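Minutes, project check-in

Agenda point 3 was the complex the collaborators sent over. CS summarized: three entities, 1187 residues total, and the question is how they sit relative to each other. Sequences were read into the notes so everyone works from the same version.
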Amino acid sequence: MSENVKKYIKRQVIKPINSKISEKFVDAGLEKIRACINCGTCTGGCPSGRRTAYRTRSAIRKALTGDTSVLEDIDIWLCSTCYYCYERCPRDIPVTDMIIKLRNIAVEEGYILDAHFGLANNVFFITGHGVPANGEENKKWQDLRESYGLPPLPPTVHCHPEAVEEVQSLLKSVGFTELMENTKKLKEERAKKEQAEKEESTK
Amino acid sequence: MIEKKNWRYGMFLGCVAPNRYPMIEASIRAVFEHLGAELLELEGASCCPAPGVFRAFHIPSWLVIAARNITIAEQIGVSPLTGCNGCYGTLRDAWVEMEHEPSLKKMVNEHLAKVGRVYKGNREPKHIVQALYLDMGMDYLRDHIKYTFKDLKVAVHYGCHIIKPSDKRPWGGQYECPTFLDEMVELTGAKSLDYKDKFLCCGAGGAVRTAVKEISADFSREKLENIRNAGADIIIDVCPFCHLQLDLGQLEANGIYKDIIGEPYKIPVIYLTQLLGLAFGIDPNQLGLVKNHQLAGVPPFISIEPFLNIVKEQLD
Amino acid sequence: MTESKPEEIVVTAHDKPKIGVYVCHCGINIGGVISVPDLVEYSKTLPNVVLAKEYKFLCSDIGQKLIQDDIKEGLINRVIVAACSPRMHEPTFRATLNDVGLNQFLFEQANIREHATWVNMQDPEGAYEIAKDHIRMAVGKANKLRPLEVQKVKVEPSCLIIGGGVAGMNAALDLATEGYTTYLVERTPTIGGHMAQLDKTFPTMDCSACIITPRMSDVAKTKGIELRTYCEVVDVEGYVGNFVVTIMHKPHYVDQEKCTACGACAEECPIDCGNEFDLGMQTRKAIYIPFPQAVPGQYTIDMDKCVKCGICARETVCEPGAIVYDDKPVYEKIKIGTIIIATGWDLFDPIKLEQYGYGRYPNVIDSLQMERLLSSFGPVLGKPVRPSDLKAPHSIAFLQCVGSRNFRQGGNKYCSRVCCMYATKQARQYKEKHPEADVYIFYMDVRAFGKGYEEFYESAAENYGINYIRGRIAEVREGENNSIIIRAEDTLLQELIELEVDMFILSCGLVPKADADQVSALLSVQRSSDGFFMEAHPKLKPVDTLTDGVFVAGVAQGPKDIPDTVAQAKGAASSAAALMAQGEVEIEPYYSVVLEHLCSGCKTCQSLCPFGAINFDNFKKIAMVNPAKCKGCGTCVSACPSDAMVQNHFNNDQLITIINFALKENPL
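CS then shared the predicted structure for the full assembly.
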């Protein structure tokens, strides 16, 4: 009997609706999101949606109904920002900007992929490039440059350590480093909590 | 013969071009020098910062770093010029947004002041295609064509950020079916093919490649399948990240999706200025087309020999 | 009904103003927010106010009598009502004065409701201060009010209707029946408009041609209707009741009296060109009638296509000898009392929406093309085929809201109202001819608002098996054999779909005619932000325009279906008739007056007048204002470098007094 209960009974069918997420959009001047009439043009032309479970319209709808799963799931990170939804929306909603805002909110609340965190905090913050070529481990890229008649390192931050420091101090000033620390903290706390809950349930 | 104007730009390199695909950087420098445009160095420029990743984390950070990069060009009195759709997306969108919303510009300058910089916003960020097509114009480019291909079938890949968001781009709002790259490719005598979903995104951007490589590889797989079915000899693109996704990504797709693609893909991926440079008569060595090294694990990951053979056969 | 006119109370500039201030409670609208008794006391302190009273509802009979009694007893010769907006009750109170013989322009209304209490309900002290300001300013003006006389002008009992579609024709028939001479001007060679192009009409599935052609022949036969087809209105001068309209008769190159419509010329004509009526899908000759049931049925030569080969002019071809190669335009000037704009619509051109492939893929067509394909006298005699291979499609898809409900830059934000129903109709028609075909309608919403519409929609799904998919199509591409492959999200299933169909039909919206701006300029009427002609009041005056004597009917005013169009046409005819029945119309005396001794003849005012109300007297070399056309906008007054223009009821002295009283100074 209890197996059927587990299989078929789904309480919590009624979903409460709140404006917790949409309030953040309104505060940021992105109240246009509320004009969405769910026509589906955005999803219909989405190149990512054709091969993943990401549905543009559903992400927007979840934001408007306050469904926080949109911040926790990976779906919004599968948008390649091709901007077709932005161009075709009949209500003139800058859809891509909305997805990016959802990503911002997700990061604030500690939902970020390890790969992205590493790229931001370690690669970019340390070197000033998203794809660096300096250091011994990147010698082959320097050699490659030279083989095409270019100096081994480009005249970017790679040749100007003071520029790297400038970038780092700007990132501190504008709150990027603080955001990354906070994100990491929230993510670790959540992981601990989930681990504890798992151990509880297996006891 | 159109008079050579005084074109001066600041060469914004970004990350992928200088650090992974330097042949693209080499070909841009060679072509612009040949056309009489001056490319000044933007010393100390950083990552633009990449729109897919960094804009997703924190917009103020993205604006501040982008503005810093633009000020490097402003200081030497030139427009920042980039050969990358991603960098173009960042620099141009940041520029337009700050012009539109003065409070953003104010916020950015508050932070830049701490490092002794002032962002004015008086230098329009440009893509090299914008410089070639709009600043110099087709007639000027046509005058420089020395050699033409007899039978080269090209699949042009526009990418996304060069044309969208269309309200922040210089193409008059056109985004569904632009033709400017096809026109430039056909200057060289090559034929620009129509193929299924020609304007499909390569899949690298928007932080997708960093998030789940297999997903971006599937974008590329679909694109490569359509390009192969259309019978193209080469792919032409105008973005180092698209270039990476279609070149290294072609190798990855061949591996990850080998069960469904049949024959592995082997379509050479060429950057626009490499093709234009050949038609202008520039030495292929200067265009990054000739391998002068024995390094392993570096591009081009898909051999461009078939293309070089066509070049030998068709261009006198 | 008519009482004897009351004896006029004479008021001149020498008489001291005796102002009566009446403050209205307006129920709790005013009285519930501020203290009306205090306002009454305040009013008594103001210059030349001899009495001040209050009442709950001054607009009521008792309220009005309160004022009238004071006038009749000679206590007051200026009346101020402090109450609602003058747009509500100024006419009411003016009539109150008029009925007891006091000049109605010795009245001023202070708006202490909309401008004070209604907008400051949370701030009664603030509302009170504002109310005092308004009353004080009104007292200032009242001190300077002078009696004025309304002008009366005669109204010509004739109506000009621009546009010979279903709206224009119905309005013409009604007016002619009522006995008014009606000029029905239509720029194409036939009346009937777009309705003649339709095959069936929803929801009854009446054959459109069957219901409109009898009307068309009625119009031709009705004595009071002066039919002017192949004509255009090129100039409109004058003002309400007294328009002078110039109509250009375009040259037919065929004598319309002699032509018997036998059609022999068209049989011999060697030139084939696209027929506009069939949107280019069928040919006509250079000498043609637009469609077989055209009214009038006489032929016209399209000179752009004619090569003057002379074949049609041969005696053996045109026996009556009706061909006139050197025909010229003829201009006709007529006197008109009222004008009805019934110019109709064009279909939105979807060529700019490149994602739908219109103009690139042969099997993407628009709804009017589909309508002609479905028509029994259309290019395929009612058996629709795909343009690419002329075979009947096995599957068709419609996309709704093409060019409508689009908030993007340059898009039309409005809903075109008829597309949901006409797509359902066309889908049903196709299913009737091909029951085995798959028919899809991609929609955002289905708007089935009218009588019988919801039932029609239900039947389309239940009885005809039309598939309604809620999802706006993102893009299409071409497949094998010119098929159309559609990409959309089925939003109700939250699934992406890719659908291949043989033919794709765009349900395009309705847009104003391309030269609506020229008509607008010709008649001095405004257009709304959506480009259609603007009604005088969105709720209460749907057929009037802001220009007196000019009315609007049909889709020219906004997208609507045939029942609403006919209703509105009848409404416009009724309004025009009401104006013409009165025989004369009153003009408000707010017009400007030229002080002849000051006018230097610089013509600045004439060049600026937006209503063309100022003419130049070449003999006296001064400006002259036409009081009937003058709207009292004040432009000429402020522009005149010689201070020679005075505006009745708003002259400089009055306005400066108001300002001074507003600033609490009292220059009296």
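Noted in discussion: Chain A touches chain C at residues 35, 37-46, 49-50, 55, 57-58, 84, 88-92 (CB under 8 Å).
Follow-up: revisit at the next meeting once the mutant set is ready.
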